[in-house]
Every structure is written in structure tokens, then in C-alpha cells.
Write a structure and sequence with these properties.
Helices cover about 80% and strands about 0% of the residues. The chain is mostly helical. It has 2 domains: about 40 residues, no CATH class; about 375 residues, no CATH class.
Length: about 425
């Protein structure tokens, strides 16, 4: 037991030290695992075996396909069309451009599945438009980065595929369905917050609602939105697996971007694929190194120890649920999304299920917690991207985001304590 305790201390302390020294997360995960294995006297061939095992999964192949689809659609002229559709839907409201930003993120998130891509793509268009119409630049940036988290919940989200793989045996189709209502709830919460702020600051309204304009923009955007229908209906209906649907979605997005919207030529396609490879290499390295870390956690029985420690503090399921969220929020402040899902899921999922939280519901909770983490310093990637795109100091963006943090925390608590929000569609359609 003493050996295990020392090995756990080496694993976790070395990992945290490297994180605070600003090591790249993949190096921190790998090196701390190697130190732990060396202390235990295990052969380093275990490292290679676990790295290969971590990425040798058929279901994991969906991740690079979904990322590729998002890259192609994101650079293929889709953003402007979805913004126009969102404007036709909600642009007439007080603070209309803020509402457009939030609704456009819901649409675009279903295509990209990435908060960073959402912020970079939509933010570069919408933030200057909002500032030009009289919105404060820090408010415009805050709306953009917070609404980008909708894309993490709205399927197809590659982070949900990563969670399904980490949780073991969780249906990707059920996770996809579970994200729709929470994503819409998050959008509604952010819209309420934006409306209150817009009223107080006298931000402008857009043009009056026109049903004719709405139908026209819906027709233009149909080809982009159809990609979501192909993936979700195909997976939920059992027509094909998540991996097969992702591969089909890549081909479809290529056809739409090159031949229908003509936002990409073949030279642009190759450039986009180069960007995809950069993103994919980071994601796959993280998954493979996190597999070593997970192996160490499992062999040292850390999930069992963590479960006993938390239950030892309290047996109140409400307090335990809040503790789980606090742990995930703190991790989100110092780590990126994929490694949190890969490392925290095996530890925290057994605790969550022990107090009656469904694995699918917990997956949505993890994704939203990680989304909030993407907006918090010191490692909030989306916060940095939004600050750069909006050309606003990070301190001002954080201050402007405070009311929206509250909106997101309220939604998180609702998802935690009202399981029907996440489970309604999976229970209805996956029986």
C-alpha cells in the first residue's frame, strides 16, 4: 500500500508541477506516467503498448473525421450563411446582433463541434459587425466566446465521442441526442443575459421579422444544416456507426463547400486539410499519452480511492454532485478539454453513477464543465482566441464575461439536478 501511495504521489504531483511550469499537456501526461512506471519497476515498453492501445479503436476514428468535416465546412463559406439565417430568426430583438451571435453559434456548433473554431470563424465576422452597430467590444467578445460552448453540446461533437470511448459502453447516438436540449437551454440562458444587458445599455434592435426572409435564408442554409441531419439521423436510426457517419459527413461537406457554396477551391481544400492535420496530431497525441496516464490510474486503483475519499466526506448526493462539478471546473482552469475527459472520466464516472447520475447525463455535465473551463484563465484557450479576434485585453473580456459565467453555472446546476433535460430525447428515441 505504501508503494502505491508513493507511486500515486509521483504521478499526480509531477503532473501538476509540470502543468504549472507550463509544459505542454501531452508532455506533462506522458512524463508523469513514465516517472510513475519507473518507480514501480515496470518496463517502459508498457508506454508504447498503452499509447498504441489508446488510439487503436474503431469508434475513435470518428474523431478525426468529425474534425475534418468541421474544418472544411468552417472554411467553405458556411459562416456567413448561418449568420444570415440567425439574423432572420432573432435579429429583430433588442440586442439583436448579440442574439444572432448566440443562435448562429448553435447552428455552427452543429457543424464544427469546436468552441475554438466557432470563436475564430464567427467571431472574426460578428465582433466587428457588433462594434460597428454600437455594441461594446468587450461585450461582443464575451457573447462570442460564451455562445461558442453551445457547439460542444450540439452534435456531432467529437468530444462526446472521446467521452464515449473513455466511459466504455456509452452510446454515441444517445450522447448526440442528449446534447440538443442542454445546448438550446444554454443558448436561451445566454440570450436572457444578453437581453438584460442590452436593455440596460440601450443596444439597438435589428430589422423587423420577415417570414419571407426567414424562408429564403433557411433555403440557402439547408445544405449546411443537412450535414447534421445526415450524421445524427444516421447514427440514431442505426443506419451506420458514428465512424461511418463521420466519414460520409466529410465527403458531403467537401461536395457542399466546393460545388454548391463554392467557398473552397481545390487549392483551398488542401490548405484546409493541412490545418486539420495540425489539429488532429495534437488530439491523437493527447489521446495516446492520456491512455498511459489512465493505465497508471487504473493499476494504482485511484478511481476507487477517489470514490472512497469523496464518499468519506459526505454521503449527501447533492453535495457529492456539486463536488464533482467543482473538481471539473478547477481542472478546466488548468487543463484543456480532451485530457480532462480522458483522465477524469474513469475516476469520476463511478462516483457519479453511485449517486444515481446516468453516464449519458454525466457526459453532458463534463462537456459543459470543460466548456466553462475553456473560458477561464489561466489556460482558457477560447478566452485567448476571443481576446485576439476581438482585439480586446483579456482582463476586460473576463470582466464582461462574468454575467455569462453565471448563466452557464445556472444551466450546469439544472443539468446536474434535473436529469430529464439530458435524458428526455435519448429515452424517447433510443428505446
Amino acid at each position: 500500500m505504501a508503494t502505491n501511495t508513493t507511486a500515486i504521489a509521483i504521478l499526480l504531483i509531477s503532473f501538476l508541477v509540470m502543468i504549472f511550469l507550463r509544459f505542454h499537456i501531452a508532455y506533462a501526461v506522458a512524463l508523469s506516467s513514465i516517472f510513475c512506471l519507473l518507480y514501480q519497476g515496470l518496463p517502459l515498453t508498457t508506454v508504447c503498448q498503452q499509447m498504441v492501445k489508446g488510439i487503436s479503436s474503431f469508434s475513435l476514428m470518428a474523431v478525426p473525421f468529425f474534425i475534418t468535416m468541421g474544418c472544411i465546412m468552417g472554411t467553405g463559406g458556411i459562416s456567413e450563411k448561418l449568420i444570415a439565417l440567425a439574423d432572420a430568426c432573432v435579429g429583430w430583438m433588442t440586442g439583436g446582433m448579440a442574439m444572432v451571435n448566440i443562435v448562429a453559434s448553435y447552428f455552427f456548433g452543429g457543424i464544427s463541434g469546436s468552441a475554438a473554431a466557432d470563436t475564430a470563424s464567427l467571431g472574426s465576422i460578428l465582433i466587428p459587425m457588433m462594434v460597428e452597430q454600437g455594441y461594446d467590444d468587450d461585450f461582443s467578445t464575451a457573447v462570442t466566446i460564451t455562445s461558442s460552448c453551445e457547439g460542444l453540446l450540439v452534435p456531432p461533437s467529437h468530444n462526446m465521442v472521446i467521452y464515449a470511448m473513455s466511459a466504455g459502453g456509452v452510446s454515441v447516438g444517445s450522447l448526440f441526442l442528449a446534447g440538443y436540449i442542454p445546448g438550446a437551454l444554454l443558448a436561451a440562458s445566454l440570450m436572457i443575459g444578453s437581453y438584460i444587458i442590452s436593455k440596460r445599455r440601450h443596444y439597438p434592435k435589428g430589422d423587423a421579422f420577415s417570414f419571407k426572409t426567414f424562408i429564403k435564408q433557411l433555403g440557402v442554409s439547408f445544405w449546411a444544416l443537412a450535414a447534421i441531419i445526415i450524421v445524427v439521423v444516421g447514427v440514431v436510426g442505426g443506419v451506420f456507426t458514428a465512424t461511418e457517419s463521420a466519414a460520409i459527413a466529410v465527403i458531403y461537406s467537401l461536395i457542399v463547400s466546393v460545388f454548391i457554396y463554392r467557398g473552397l477551391d481545390w487549392k483551398g481544400v488542401w490548405k484546409t486539410l493541412e490545418q486539420c492535420i495540425d489539429t488532429l496530431s495534437i488530439v491523437m497525441i493527447l489521446i495516446s499519452t492520456s491512455s498511459i496516464f489512465g493505465y497508471c490510474l487504473t493499476t494504482l486503483h485511484v478511481p476507487d480511492l477517489a470514490s472512497r475519499a469523496i464518499i468519506g466526506l459526505t454521503r449527501n448526493p447533492v453535495i457529492i454532485a456539486i463536488l464533482l462539478n467543482v473538481i471539473l471546473l478547477v481542472l478546466g482552469c488548468i487543463m484543456d478539454m480532451a485530457p480532462i475527459i480522458l483522465i477524469a472520466t474513469p475516476i469520476l464516472l463511478p462516483i457519479a453513477t453511485s449517486i444515481g447520475i446516468n453516464p449519458i447525463q454525466f457526459g453532458i455535465m463534463i462537456v459543459l464543465n470543460c466548456g466553462i473551463g475553456l473560458l477561464t484563465p489561466p489556460v482558457g484557450a477560447v478566452l485567448f482566441i476571443g481576446s485576439a479576434v476581438g482585439k480586446v485585453k483579456m482582463e476586460r473580456v473576463v470582466k464582461a464575461t462574468l454575467p455569462f459565467y453565471l448563466c452557464m453555472i445556472i444551466v450546469l446546476m439544472l443539468l446536474t439536478f434535473i436529469p430529464e433535460i439530458s435524458m428526455f430525447l435519448p429515452n424517447l428515441l433510443m428505446k
